[in-house]
Amino acid sequence: MPPEFVKVMLADLRNECTHLQFYLYHAAAVRGLHRVEYQEFFDEAARSEMKHVRQFLDRLFGLNVLLSPHQISLEAHDFPQMTDAHNILRHACSLETQVIDNYALRLQQLESLSATNPVEAAYLTVFYENQLQDSYEDRDNMRQMLA
């Protein structure tokens, strides 16, 4: 894979790390009448995001990309710290929308890479389609919770 695409994969990994930490933090921080149910929901969301983080790491190592330890970071972007479940869900929807847009763009980028890297591009297309589906369904579920 071209180094430019590896860089965007590393950025996608960072976004997934952000989601993981966001959900984990808010599982503890959420307050209100239905706190226990929201804690369970955010705990499950964190577990799902941990799976995504692992999948991105697997893909990066699986591509035999020679990365130095400082290039693979599990650092997260900053995110707002809230206690209100509705505000947390609204922000989670915006986080998911961001990666949905990113993954749709990655699929377009992979189309253009298919001529020079057909096998890797085909494999990563399936990978990003699955990531897109998971994020889209998560966002849809949270939108329904907010309705």
Based on the model shown, name its key terms.
147 residues, Ferritin, mainly alpha
Description:
It contains 4 helices and no strands. It has a single domain, classed as Ferritin, core subunit, four-helix bundle (Ferritin, Up-down Bundle). The protein is mainly α and 147 residues long. The model has no long low-confidence stretch (mean pLDDT 94). The relative contact order is 0.16. The chain is elongated.
SSE layout:
Elements: H1 3-29, H2 35-62, H3 85-113, H4 118-146
Helix pairs in contact: 1-2, 1-3, 3-4
Number of helices: 4
- Give the CA-CA distance, first to last residue: 42 Å
What's the count of strands?
Answer: 0
Order of helices and strands: HHHH
Which CATH-level-2 architecture?
Answer: Up-down Bundle
What is the CATH superfamily label?
Ferritin, core subunit, four-helix bundle
CATH structural fold name = Ferritin
pLDDT < 50 runs, ≥5 residues: none
Number of domains: 1
Report the radius of gyration as a whole number of Å.
Answer: 16 Å
Q: What fraction of the residues are assigned to beta strands by DSSP? A: under 5%
Can you summarize this structure?
This protein is mainly α and 147 residues long. 77% of the residues lie in helices and 0% in strands. The model has no long low-confidence stretch (mean pLDDT 94).
